[in-house]
Amino acid sequence: MSIKAGVVGAAGFAGIEAVRLLAAHPSFELSAITSSELAGTRLADVYPAFEGVSDLRFLAHDDSALDECDVVFLAVPHTAALKAAPGFIERGISVIDLSADFRLKDPAVYEKWYKVPHTQTELLSQAAFGLPELMGDELAAVAARRAKGEAVLVACAGCYPTATSLAAAPAVRAGFVREGSPIVVDAVSGVTGAGKKPTQRTHFCFADANVEAYGVGTHRHTPEIEQILGAPGRVVFTPHLAPLGRGLLSTVTLQLEADAPSDAAAYVEEYRRAYAESPFVSVLDAGHQPRTASVAGSNRAHIGLAISEPAHMLVATCAIDNLGKGAAGQAVQCASIVFGLPQNAGLAGVSLSV
Amino acid sequence: MSIKAGVVGAAGFAGIEAVRLLAAHPSFELSAITSSELAGTRLADVYPAFEGVSDLRFLAHDDSALDECDVVFLAVPHTAALKAAPGFIERGISVIDLSADFRLKDPAVYEKWYKVPHTQTELLSQAAFGLPELMGDELAAVAARRAKGEAVLVACAGCYPTATSLAAAPAVRAGFVREGSPIVVDAVSGVTGAGKKPTQRTHFCFADANVEAYGVGTHRHTPEIEQILGAPGRVVFTPHLAPLGRGLLSTVTLQLEADAPSDAAAYVEEYRRAYAESPFVSVLDAGHQPRTASVAGSNRAHIGLAISEPAHMLVATCAIDNLGKGAAGQAVQCASIVFGLPQNAGLAGVSLSV
Amino acid sequence: MSIKAGVVGAAGFAGIEAVRLLAAHPSFELSAITSSELAGTRLADVYPAFEGVSDLRFLAHDDSALDECDVVFLAVPHTAALKAAPGFIERGISVIDLSADFRLKDPAVYEKWYKVPHTQTELLSQAAFGLPELMGDELAAVAARRAKGEAVLVACAGCYPTATSLAAAPAVRAGFVREGSPIVVDAVSGVTGAGKKPTQRTHFCFADANVEAYGVGTHRHTPEIEQILGAPGRVVFTPHLAPLGRGLLSTVTLQLEADAPSDAAAYVEEYRRAYAESPFVSVLDAGHQPRTASVAGSNRAHIGLAISEPAHMLVATCAIDNLGKGAAGQAVQCASIVFGLPQNAGLAGVSLSV
Amino acid sequence: MSIKAGVVGAAGFAGIEAVRLLAAHPSFELSAITSSELAGTRLADVYPAFEGVSDLRFLAHDDSALDECDVVFLAVPHTAALKAAPGFIERGISVIDLSADFRLKDPAVYEKWYKVPHTQTELLSQAAFGLPELMGDELAAVAARRAKGEAVLVACAGCYPTATSLAAAPAVRAGFVREGSPIVVDAVSGVTGAGKKPTQRTHFCFADANVEAYGVGTHRHTPEIEQILGAPGRVVFTPHLAPLGRGLLSTVTLQLEADAPSDAAAYVEEYRRAYAESPFVSVLDAGHQPRTASVAGSNRAHIGLAISEPAHMLVATCAIDNLGKGAAGQAVQCASIVFGLPQNAGLAGVSLSV
What we know:
Largest sheet of chain A: 7 strands, parallel
CATH architecture of the largest domain in chain A: 3-Layer(aba) Sandwich
CATH topology of the largest domain in chain A: Rossmann fold
CATH superfamily of the largest domain in chain A: NAD(P)-binding Rossmann-like Domain
Oligomer: homotetramer
Radius of gyration of chain A: 20 Å
Strand order of the largest sheet of chain A: 3-2-1-4-5-7-6
Structural class of chain A: alpha/beta
Helix content of chain A: 25-40%
Largest interface: A-B, 53 and 53 residues
Number of helices of chain A: 11
């Protein structure tokens, strides 16, 4: 089976990672890549990694080549997906959206955090949230609809919400975390998370040898994490930028119920049970901590668990590649699920970390 | 006035930074540097930065040149300072200790975390804690004793405790932080914090492009932070390693009292009041976050303050150079105070961050 | 067809890269990995990238599991391959040697540069040099012998010789380079080239933010380059270390014959002709220069060509991944050729450079 | 003595380094800093390293505060210095020019390489070339003129020419290098050399983990090196970019005369003689190579010397900080010479390399 796929917004960092994954995918056939700014340019002239490997050129966003796709991946800024998605769905093309436009179930929450009206609430109500390990039912439901010939929409989870929720959800769902307690999330992302546009912040000479927090108390991934964890108003989220390209580590500190276990091994056991069917997630032995380098370039997530006493708090950490499991890898995983393929098709690669 | 200074353990990262600062200091005269492993070796052969600048050689730890010093800086592992400090004090030589041996006021706490008996409790009871911005009274007291001719001991604060306490103390002391609430500390250090010894962890190919947590729930700086903040059992401390040489950022999340202000500006004001007499501390305007690169190579600390609602928590961040304000810079600052010099003598340098 | 493969010395950087490539290879089946120091340890405990992906454990070098292999990859230090190779060959197991032991055709040259006797001159005389793009005939010859059931030995080219020769050979072979003129090679390698052993040199805090030359005039890859280019005594080779993990750029400056073309485009044309059958080599348009990041993690080589007038010299640059095309990728490529597979089997991956 | 100094173009990387050095200088008083784009902005808002240290604001280029200066440092792009310098000289203000506008003695060479007419040939003829170690006589001459009250102009050497000439000149001047032979220069610069403007090239995600050559055969520092070495048409110059902020290493390969010595020690001796009066230059022992990290942040230059036989070529390497000895440090050194101060005034700092 060959499923024709297009990537809209293929020149950005998440887009090009989707291109890389789809170009090597056993079942998807990458047939169109678009870029508003680079239409007409050879892919290999922008990303020389493809020199000698691909003759693709960036097309315009409205190129008719997209019409022949079975699925498009939208790697565009928020609000752009609001505009683009309906047309694809109408033409019978399923949409895997990497933007934030269809992630928040409540349009009011979207409007509060993104400061724009949500113009596609009908479509929003039908979208599946794309985080297979934690919201697999939604994906199964749209996969069933797609199997009947319907074009469907998946709103893939963001990078910070993916790592943070994978770290926190099993403890929350098992009832170990104190009701109503704050969920403190300190996360660190590589600079690819800041996007391809050259700015002072992404300049090597300012980003290198530097760590800083940003968007403290205001980052738009906050309500998304709260939605996944079912913890409205409880997430205190502080993202940081560190001098690496790919990689994201989320450190989540959770107040445990008084009667929750105080040995890390119990949590390791619980998490392994929770992720038993999730081939991309590894829960490390107690006493081990995940390294972002060990998952960079892959779709994998590594989780570490430790207890801090006497405060009786769980410190759960999760490392992912923000462009892999945090963006394009997850999108391909979701697309595979939607199209009835094994979820790890084309995603077997491991990190290059020596 | 020329005060003769020696550095014991000068070949390690904190030691060599003390050497660099003392070699350029207007009042201290660097007269002896020692290393157990490198005795006899030219300083410039180990650290070529000193090539053409200094003809110093590392001496043995027991070299008689130390006897002529007015002050020695101990940059040795813990327990080694326990052994070395008494002899210097007996010979009338003041000691600025960069190790952890005399930081914890309660020997039982030391023994619990360091797993060795504290053999110098008498000396411990007379030591000043070296964190001038928060524990200035102790330093003033030993400075007065030293002015009368007594040899005194300063136990300089550790790197994480310095950044964390500078970030948290004014809010705690002003009564803004809820009594008994956990103090969540997620901090990131550069690789110099892992020491000079080559290990797999400090190997470029494992440390580069990687972020990871370590020592979760067990790091020995935990009780030190609790002591400074007067918050026993409340600190949940998760240190991380990131791919930079120098630099440390501590992100502290504090549960505010219900009636504490909810605008960051109020905290900025309070912190500026608290640090009005502290020339090395800058409290940034609300909405700004400190960058480790902007303090690397200096003795400065930059603090950022933000509020996360509706959880009503303060996120206080502090950036320092772990070898500067977090080790050797602070040691020189303390030494200056002890010897009646301006505390910023020899410490005016700013970061090289372009 | 499944060909059983083993990796001897699998814990080093070249070895683990071979493991990564063979584990995902469509025709080789990775059945044994060995390490002298880590025998018994789980692969994933040393390289967490394999966590959740592989249950392999390192075996001892003499483990009988190797006996069942069709081919072994030797990723061991020089002289160790001299000792290990004959036994495998005798047992009918072909050997792909990543070490330097069988690269130099003349044992006297080996002995001069490596300061040890060459104890396997008979085997040496039968070995093929593993650089398919430039010495394809030797590989074809051993492939023919292997097809008849013989166990054969391939001595894969080193990292610097690979990049340097790919950059220089077409110009030399076309007669553009002045007879007897010096061949100036300045090359830069990432720190993986310095090996896995932690040393002061590979310590993050010494390797980061630093560039330095090393082994000037004495590096053992010098005679290997001279052998490939047929230019004894003419190579002036200066390797450098730069702060990156993977990646190697060789810049070769060649004195052109007076009547050789003076426009870069003529050389681009010649090089593209020379590499027309080489799927891993891309010759960039005149005016473009290769980036190591664009080939890191792949088996590809990118070549740039420019002319410097009035000195009438060709500056040819070649970027490879020192662990990929410079080591394990090349080894897998050679093994595929030897076993009659397409040379790019299992090597289609492109760089992760965003 | 307090000499009033201004920095024109203070917001760029060379400019801000001049600001940093002058702010801490014992004899110069930094009284005005200008920026065309950032006039009115606080210095500390652009470079937070100055937070709590300096209240300076960027002024417009034509601010009258410059009129009161004794000396201005021009850290502006080429052609801008052509326009700005004459006005300062006319007003009696000496000019230390960090741009390329007055470096090339022959206006025709300037026009050939910079593609614009040289509009200030009279001023050019009076300018001193600012490379004290090799062209000290020119500086002495303008210092004498300035001592008589004349405003003078110094054209500071560029970064690559400084490192390259320091590496090559003593051998060339001693007659060791074969007449007319090509001088092959492969040099590596950190990303600060690419300037402050954010571009794809300076984006962390493209610059990190990457080495590449650029400007091969066309870089404008080529004629400057040829001028210093008195070797017109002989320099083959290939600059490279590597993933570090500050630091530049130039590797120069020189064909020796047949009767020139073949042991490195002889060159070390000759170089030490040549630089005996140069406090910033260290010639390392034979067998040692300079590290850029060991000079970063300082005004120092480290030189390594090795011989490659049988080609009988000298490989001379020189490491500097491209913003220090390669730009602002050298400018301050030249200014000190011009104003009769010790040339190392304010430049005693050593690298922070641990």
